[in-house]
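re the bet — no i am not wrong, look at it urself. input seq straight from the record:
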Amino acid sequence: MSLVLVGLADIEAAAARIRGVALRTPLIEVTLGPTPRTFGLKCENLQPMGAFKIRGAYNMLAQLSPDARAAGVVTYSSGNHGQAVALAAERLGIRAVVVMPETAPRVKVDGVRRYGGEVIFAGTSSVDRRTRAEAEAAARGLTIVPPFDHPWIIAGAGTCGLEILDQRPDVAAVYVPVGGGGLLSGIAAAVRGSGRAVRLIGVEPAGAARMSASRAAGRPVRLEKTSSIADGLLPLQPGTLTFAHVQALVDDLVTVDDDALVGAVRWLFREARIVAEPSGAASVAAVLQAGASMSPGTVAVVSGGNVSAEDYTRYIAVP
C-alpha cells in the first residue's frame, strides 16, 4: 500500500501554527569564489534553538490532545531535535524527556536541559535511542515525538520550503542536508505542491549515506554503522515516510566527505560570517563541490549551528 505524502495544505496549516515560535529565517546572497556567481543561504541556524527542528517539533506538540499534553512527551535525538522538542514543550507547558546518545555533543545536551528537558543517555546508535524512548513511553504514558518520520514533523519542516519560494521567486535548485530525511521531505513537498520547476538535491555525509543506499535498493535500507563529524546526520536508516517522499519528489542525492564539511564550515565563517555545525553546512559543502557547474538560482539550506566552541575553533583554523 502506498503511503500518503504530506501536501501543500498541510504545510500551509503548519506555517500558521508555528508562527511566533519558529522564525522566518533570512535568505542571504553570497558570492562563490572569485567569480560573480552567487547563491542563497537559508539560515536555519538562526532559529531560537539553533536549527530547523523547531518547525516540526512545535507543529506536532501543538496538535496533541489535552490528555497527551498533560502526560508529557518523549523523543530520541542526537541533539537538535531534542532541543527543539524541549523548547516547544517549554512554550506549551508540557513535560519533555529526551533520549540522547552517550556521545552527544555537550553543547546539545546542555541545550536540552536549558529548555527544561529531562535527558536520558542510551547507547550510541539511533536504534539504541529509539528502543529506550519506546520503553519510557510505555512505562510513563508519554507520547513519542519522532525526529523525522511523521507527517506533522515533515509538514513543519516544509514551512522552510514555503519561505524559500517566497524569498527567492527565481529559485532553480535547493540543496538540503539529509539525516533521516524530514527536512528534505518537507521542502520537497512544499516545492512540488507549489508547481514550481525547482531541482531538489539531498546531501549526505559519505560515511552515512543511508538515503542513497535506500534509493539504490528501492526500499529503506539500514546501514550497519555510520561515521562522520556531522553528528546530526547519522541515523542508520531513513524513515519509511521520508523515503517515500524522497523517492517520489527529490531529483538527486549527493555525498560529501568530512574534509568537505570542515571546508564548508570554514567557508561560511570566512565568506558569510555564519556559524554552522558540520551537519548544517553539508548543503554548502555540496555547492562548493559543484563549483562552476552550480545552477543560477541555487539555494543551500544551512540547517543548524549548534557546535561547541572547541570544535568550531578547530574547524575554522587555517589548515
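see?? The two ends are 52 Å apart (CA to CA). told u. also Residues 83 and 205 are 22 Å apart (CA to CA). so pay up
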